[in-house]
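Thread amino acids onto this structure.
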């Protein structure tokens, strides 16, 4: 029987020592699944992304700028506690919290927490059941391990920018990063997978474990078929713009008033496309009859297709293609994404509570669980919003004790 009050991870306590994106993206997803996530931030400053704007959330009463949209995107549902881990008292508070936690996530540079006595070996001694996830640019081993790692450089080093962007010989060609921080976001997702696996392992053994995640490792793995193409064929793939190295036609095509995507995945779909464009004979042409032939004769076929798609308004061509069940779609800006009937039917925009603004819009989680759904009842926290409550509930500190720590700059 369904129980709407039950969440998949509502018995899991996560201590979040991460900031910026990869770690917070991981812990936001754990929060969406019901985990209680305690985000530890530096007093008076907090996560760097609180200031990464514009735009900023604005206090409706005073018009003062609050947190940046960047921060709001990755910190839904967490409890913010301010602790200065550079102080002995702050380190002790974090050790006490780690003793009660199921999971700890951090993204400090190699050895960054060891000097504070907050590394895995130190915390394992006080909590053998702790699942400790470290996220760094290059992992814990290898010659690059001490280096800082940022998404942009990791996209370059991991091969992403060698296959993203227009062909080198064409105008605008050359290296191009993805429009989102794909290395950070992918690492956050992989961190969730590893953490859930480690928690399941703990059910069998009673022991936690250490998780070593490197952005470069993740980015190389995300190259998937492109990496495998090199490993099997021995030739590094090149940039192909909006085209696909192994499927034709599978790219953006011009119309009377813009562009749209046509993604033909098999020979039957190509035959239907040829009919829609008024050239059914193309499906019998030996140069185009099979996908492998269309790939070989790409330079002939694509201009023929473009000449025909230019004759149609985008909406008209999309309708004709959809009626024939040919995969296609518009190239939406974000306003059109959220206006799309499918996005609205799936409730991809949600509103969550916020202590400053009342509510704040957020992008829905893609995780749809029938018996333990994501519930949008907790928004991104203000800096230190839950310090007193968390230290009181978990560590038993009363108000005077917290105020004494605040007076010393510890919290």
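Threaded sequence (411 positions):
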């Amino acid at each position: 029987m369904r129980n709407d009050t039950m969440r998949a991870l509502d018995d899991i306590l996560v201590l979040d020592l991460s900031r910026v994106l990869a770690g917070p993206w991981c812990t936001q997803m754990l929060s969406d699944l019901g985990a209680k996530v305690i985000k530890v931030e530096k007093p008076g400053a907090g996560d760097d992304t609180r200031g990464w704007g514009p735009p900023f959330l604005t206090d409706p009463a005073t018009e003062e700028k609050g947190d940046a949209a960047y921060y709001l995107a990755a910190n839904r549902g967490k409890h913010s506690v301010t602790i200065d881990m550079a102080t002995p008292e702050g380190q002790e508070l974090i050790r006490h919290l780690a003793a009660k936690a199921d999971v700890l996530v951090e993204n400090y540079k190699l050895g960054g927490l060891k000097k504070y006595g907050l590394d895995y070996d130190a915390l394992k001694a006080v909590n053998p059941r702790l699942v400790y996830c470290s996220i760094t640019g290059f992992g814990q081993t290898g010659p690059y391990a001490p280096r800082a790692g940022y998404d942009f450089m990791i996209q370059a080093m991991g091969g992403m920018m060698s296959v993203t962007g227009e062909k080198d010989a064409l105008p605008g060609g050359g290296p191009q990063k993805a429009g989102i921080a794909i290395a950070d976001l992918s690492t956050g997702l992989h961190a969730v997978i590893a953490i859930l696996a480690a928690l399941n392992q703990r059910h069998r053994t009673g022991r936690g474990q250490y998780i070593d995640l490197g952005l470069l490792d993740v980015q190389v793995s995300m190259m998937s078929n492109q990496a495998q193409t090199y490993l099997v064929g021995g030739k590094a793939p090149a940039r192909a713009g909006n085209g696909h190295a192994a499927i034709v036609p599978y790219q953006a095509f011009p119309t009377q008033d813009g562009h749209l995507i046509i993604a033909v995945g098999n020979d039957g779909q190509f035959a239907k496309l040829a009919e829609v464009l008024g050239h059914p004979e193309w499906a019998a042409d030996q140069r185009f009859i099979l996908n492998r032939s269309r790939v070989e004769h790409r330079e002939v076929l694509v201009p023929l297709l473009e000449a025909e798609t230019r004759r149609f308004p985008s909406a008209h061509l999309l309708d004709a293609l959809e009626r024939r069940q040919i995969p296609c779609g518009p190239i939406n800006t974000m306003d059109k994404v959220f206006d799309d009937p499918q996005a609205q039917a799936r409730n991809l925009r949600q509103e969550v509570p916020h202590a400053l603004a009342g509510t704040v819009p957020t992008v829905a989680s893609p995780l749809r669980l029938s018996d333990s759904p994501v519930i949008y009842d907790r928004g991104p926290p203000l800096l230190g919003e839950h310090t007193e409550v968390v230290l009181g509930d978990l560590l038993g500190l009363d108000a005077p004790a917290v105020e004494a720590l605040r007076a010393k700059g510890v919290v």
